[in-house]
Amino acid sequence: MMYHDQHKSYPPAVINDEHGVPMHSWRAILLPYFEDKELQKLGKQYRFDEPWNGPNNRQLLQKAPAIFRCPNDRDSPGETSYLAVIGSETMWRGTKPIRIREIDDGIHKTIAVVECSDSGINWLEPRDVTFNDATDGINKLTDRPGVHSDHVGGAMVLMSDGAVHFLSDDIKPETLRALLTPAGGEDVDIPE
Questions:
Q1: Quick check: 104 and 150 in contact, CB under 8 A?
Q2: How far is CA 95 from the centre of its chain?
Q3: What is the Cα–Cα distance from 92 to 125, expressed in whole angstroms?
Q4: What are the b/e assignments for 34-65, b being 16+ CB within 10 Å?
Q5: How many Å apart are CA 112 and CA 170, to the nearest integer?
Q6: Backbone conformation region of residue 78, classed left if phi is above 0, alpha if psi is from -120 to 50, else beta
Q7: How many Å apart are CA 136 and CA 117, to the nearest integer?
Q8: How far apart are CA 114 and CA 118, in angstroms?
Q9: In order along the chain (192 residues), what is the average pLDDT of each group of 10 residues?
C-alpha cells in the first residue's frame, strides 16, 4: 500500500521501452516500497535505465527475495512463485496502473497475485500469467501456465488489500474468474 499511497495507484504490471518491449516487472517496481531493508537495498541496486536482464541487473537475477518465492517450491534459484494475472479484465492491465477506487468489487474480493510453482520465470522478468490461463482453475493439468502449487488441495493468492488466502483446487471457475476481475460486479466471497 506504500506504493499506492505515494502514486495514487497500484504499480503497472510492466514498464515498456519506447518500442513497447517489456523492460521492468511490477516486482522490481515495488522493491523500494517494502519496509524490509534487504528489499530496499535490492531496489537501490536495480537500475531502471537498462532492461531487467541488462549488465547491472543481471547480477541480481539469482537473488530472488523470499517474498517472491513459496517455501514449498523446489530449489530454482532466481525464479518467482508469484505472478500477477494480466489482462484488460484484471487489475494488471499491462502498462496502465489501476487505482483503488477502480476496484468496484472491493480490494478484499479482488485477487492481485496468484501462486505458480516452478513458473520458469525469473523474479525480475516482466512476464506473468494471463487471465485466460489463470481461469483454467487451480492445479489443473494443462499445457499452459496457470495457478498451481506444491501445496495439497489448492494454492495461495494475494488479494488487493494485502491479505493472503488459500484457494481450494475445487473452486468453481466462475468464482475464480469473479475474484480475478476488479469491476465485474459479482458479489462473491472468498471460499474458505
A1: no
A2: 14
A3: 15
A4: beeeebeebeeebeeeebbeeeebeebeeebb
A5: 20
A6: left
A7: 15
A8: 13
A9: 88 96 97 92 95 96 90 82 94 94 93 91 95 84 75 91 92 91 83 68
Question: Residue 134: which of 84, 190, 70, 170 has the closest Cα?
Answer: 84
Of the candidates 34, 12, 20, the one whose C-alpha atom is nearest the C-alpha of residue 162 is: 34
Grid cell, residue 118, equals 516452478
Indicate the DSSP class of residue 45.
H
Under 8 Å CB-to-CB from 171, ≥6 apart: which residues?
Answer: 137, 138, 154, 191
What pTM value is reported for the model? 0.91
Q: What is the DSSP string of 159-179?
A: ETTS-EEEEETT--HHHHHHH
**Cα 117-122-125 angle, rounded to 5 deg:** 125
Q: Concatenated DSSP letters for 128-148?
A: -EEHHHHTT-BS---SS--BB
